[in-house]
Specification:
Blueprint (H helix, E strand, L loop, with lengths): L2 E6 L10 H9 L12 E7 L15 H12 L4 E4 L12 H12 L3 E4 L5
The structure holds iron/sulfur cluster (SF4).
Length: 117
């Protein structure tokens, strides 16, 4: 049985319920289409905020480091990143890129996508 998780933007969570990500996961559609029925969505985490309210970079942020360690302890093998990772300029947020790097460093696969836009 495979355990996977989802990473999103904390500010997007002010207006987002995660419903589209969860619908895609449970329906095994879009970026989840290749998973078997017994795959568990076992973690759901956000970034810790933009630099103006959270000065520490992700690699120095104890909260982010704790979350990444928890992914390892939970034996998560893949993390999907929501479309909310993209800025208005259609570029990936640098902090999300850094969090993805920290996750990959632990041997966890990062997949950029959950549901189709
Ligand atoms: S750092 Fe990026 S992903 Fe996190 S709240 Fe700010 S814009 Fe969203």
């Amino acid at each position: 049985m495979k355990k996977i998780g989802i990473l999103t933007c904390i500010h997007a969570n002010e207006v987002c319920t995660g419903a589209s990500c969860l619908k895609a996961f449970h329906g095994k559609t879009d970026f989840f289409q290749d998973y078997s029925a017994d795959t568990q969505l076992a973690a759901f985490m956000t970034c810790n905020g933009c630099s103006k309210e959270r000065p520490q970079e992700p690699g120095e942020d104890p909260g982010i480091l704790e979350k990444v360690d928890r992914l390892v302890k939970e034996e998560i093998t893949a993390m999907h990143v929501g479309v909310c990772r993209m800025t208005k300029e259609k570029k990936e947020c640098g902090r999300i890129t850094e969090i993805c790097r920290l996750i990959e460093e632990k041997g966890i696969q990062v997949i950029r996508g959950t549901h189709k836009e």
